[in-house]
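Quick one before lunch.
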Amino acid sequence: MNVSDSEVVARLLSDHGYRPCDLPEDARVILVNTCSIRENAEKRVMARLDYFGLMKRQDPQLKVGILGCMATRLKEALLEHPAVDFVAGPDSYRHLPGMLGPSPTAPVQVKLSATETYADIKPYRELSRGVTSFVTIMRGCNNMCAYCIVPYVRGRERSRDPLSVEEEVRDLFAGGFREVTLLGQNVNSYHWKPGDSTAPVTFAQLLERVAGISSLLRVRYTTSHPKDMQDDVLRAMARYPNICKHIHLPVQSGSNQMLKKMNRGYTREDYLERIASIRRILPGCSISSDIIAGFCDETPEDHAQTLSLMKEARFDQAFMFHYSQRPNTLAARHYQDNVPEDVKIGRLNEIIALQNLLSLESNRADVDKEFEVLVEGVSKRSREDYFGRTGTNKVCVFPHGNSTVGNYVRVKVKSCTAATLKAEIITENNRS
Ligand code: 5AD
Ligand code: SF4
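Model of the iron/sulfur cluster complex:
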């Protein structure tokens, strides 16, 4: 989400004569796009600000601005940091050229909007040059998961005009991109009501429209919400071979008590029923998840329920966190953050260890199978190898042969670790 927002900001500023540079030391303006989701994310930003503060002592002309979620959360207080000159929240980026101009406008702009989608701004893709790109289809979130700060810092949910989404994707395809990931906090509640009397556009319909642009364009999306994900999206995925067979479906916890307390709007049984639907309609589809360890009042039994759900769902991948209390969220206001830090970490480590096993098993099941992979670039480990991902979102490394970045190759998996498939090319450039 932040990469996508940074590309919008880069466009707004490049239209006013600014150019990106590679090193902060070469910059006259530094913009820090921030995340508030966990305390650690904020701590990292504060450490960067201290460094930029030192740079400013050497070069008092340097301007530093804070963007993103921390801007909304901390507002004017951020100006107290010696490095910070201005603060712009996620819906205020159109103010940036004015804030940086010769007679600067107010240095703190953090009002959230019910309508801003930046639909008319063509993101500045030079920041993420390559073959894969993110396309924001909605902003904000209307859910109130008890632990989550997103609705407070990014505002109410709003969907973007599907025509502007299609236009952006067409442009990307024409510019050589071969994969787009449609982004929203809860894509299943995407809803566009046209001005005329035609029926509203749902996420499943938007997905089909984007997938219809070219069979050479891979389409991914994230994030699905278990309470809103319906079979219509699964059927759309089944209809289009170029919609990647991977679903990110955060469960957060396997315990019904925790799910209720988290205000997630589904039970463990509902979640497993959604998994069963995916397996039924999309055999071979991979599933990833987000899991939080040590939410308020979590007991050893609740934690055991999470481990058992992970085994039942057999996640291919997961992002795992320990609970970090965020100011003013429902949980911060109503519950006690009462699971001791060492217990949270211990549970998180058990979750990570189990997921490593599940990921390894999932990857082992792919050995000797063939997959189509979009070549994304040179492997970090070896210049002789390329890397790309399977439709199921597994990173695949293979000797590059005569293939080229941006093309599809057919590979056969030879071996694996929990994180990577090692493969060989069977057919080069089989679709280009
Ligand atoms: N503490 C820990 N993890 C969190 N997440 C969101 N808020 C918190 C929090 N306060 C996790 C959730 C979400 C992912 C993006 O971040 O798992 O799905
Ligand atoms: Fe946060 Fe829940 Fe919205 Fe996701 S769905 S952004 S976890 S409030």
